[in-house]
Amino acid sequence: MTQRTILALAASALLVACGSSDGGSADDEVVAPVFDTYGYAADPSAKGVELGRQVYTQWCAICHEAGPGMAGTEALERKYKGELPPLLRERDDLTPETIESFVREGVKSMPYFRKTEISDEELATLGLYLTEARDQAPGGRLAK
Fold this sequence. Notes:
Blueprint: H1 3-18, H2 26-36, H3 47-64, H4 71-80, H5 96-105, H6 120-129
């Protein structure tokens, strides 16, 4: 599936899920920010970022947050030895494509996630959350 197809599906899902709260164009609230993501011009207040945060909280935080016993964080800490932050939300080198690859293929002890677990639409919002837009998003790096 192409990147543009994934974004189109994500935008469609977001339009259905979020709608337009003020009777204005849902396109302004949801579609444009999602499509701008891969150009790193996303609106951090977009509902897609919030949905991405929810996906992160449900599927990723259990291994990738701070604290003892967080297998993903501990593995990245050993791997990078201080060269990169071990917390995903503190990384600035992740791209949506990298995130998609790790989620769909897994890596070492991290399992892969099927589309029945994390849909393509949810994966697109996760990519949005863990890239540029996550800096100002609720629960993002600058919102701690």
